[in-house]
Amino acid sequence: MDYHQHMSLRAALEWQIEAGVLDTLGETPVDRYAVPAAPEQPKRAARAEEANPVDAATGAPMAAAAADPVAEAQQMATAAQDLAGLQAALAAFPHCELRRGARNTVFADGTPGARVMIIGESPGREEDRQGRPFVGQAGQMLDRMLAAIGLSRAESVYITNVLPWRPPQNRDPLPDEIAMMRPFVARHVALAQPDLLVLVGNISCDAGLGKRGITRLRGSWTEAYGKPALPMFHPAYLLRQPHLKREAWADLLSLKARLG
Ligand code: URA
């Protein structure tokens, strides 16, 4: 087991503990007296062949068909022809362990086709419960920020996250989780066709720009997923650091000016 598998399993376990799981019970009772004896272990040679398969004709070792989650994500995302197809593809994507602990796949909210698309980090507890991004305290803050420049999710903004599943205890997404979700985010942008992107917080900048450092990045227009993009402080960060609202206000005015 590598480091990431270890951390994912550990995170899934912590999530279950946090969710209140006390016992590991199956849904149906098992009669242990009726369970057949475990099958005999295969001989050592057969096991070795399984681990290192060989071509039956030539006897040459065959390349292992290891799943590549990023390549598979790319393939599934590219195949999606519209937002509904992309949502279905995400819901069917099997490689991200976070999905096991999540109640919902949180896809998007707001107005598809809006000029502004906001990309956040990952769902929190409330978003996971409701299945919509930015509906908790940070979401209410985001709504207030948008309203201050005359925008609203009901009419003029489309909102999503880099990760559609809540990480346990709201931990930061791991690099491989971001990497396997990035093709879906890129396709999401291509299908939603916004004029502008707002990347809120470090994880969103990491996925869209390949770099972090929101204090340095914020307020400077750049490009992500082929669109003009404005990095901004995450509303949750502004709730913790209210003295930064002045910078956030400057960024909102920059967004408003860009929209004309
Ligand atoms: N923070 C995010 O980045 N996204 C949400 O949906 C909620 C909180």
Describe the structure.
It is built from twelve helices and six strands. The chain has one domain: Uracil-DNA glycosylase-like domain (Uracil-DNA Glycosylase, subunit E). Residues 45-51 have low confidence and may be disordered. The chain has 260 residues and is an alpha/beta fold. Strands 1-3-2-4-6-5 form a six-stranded mixed beta sheet, with helices on both faces. The protein starts with a helix and ends with a helix. Bound molecules: uracil. Uracil is lined by residues 120-124, 127, 133-134, 136, 138-139, 161, 236.
Number of strands: 6
Instruction: Count up the helices.
Output: 12
Number of domains: 1
Average pLDDT for all residues = 88
The main pleated sheet reads as: 6 strands, mixed
For the largest beta sheet, what order do the strands appear in spatially? 1-3-2-4-6-5
- The proportion of strand residues reads 5-15%
Structural class by SSE content: alpha/beta
Task: Just name the CATH architecture.
Answer: 3-Layer(aba) Sandwich
Helix content estimate: 40-55%
Return the CATH class.
Alpha Beta
Q: What's the CATH H-level homologous superfamily?
A: Uracil-DNA glycosylase-like domain
Element order: H for helix, E for strand: HHHHHEEHHEHEHHEEHH
- Broad shape: globular
Report the uncertain regions: 45-51
CATH topology: Uracil-DNA Glycosylase, subunit E
Q: Radius of gyration, rounded?
A: 22 Å
Named once each, the bound ligands are:
uracil
What gap, in angstroms, lies between the N and C termini? 53 Å
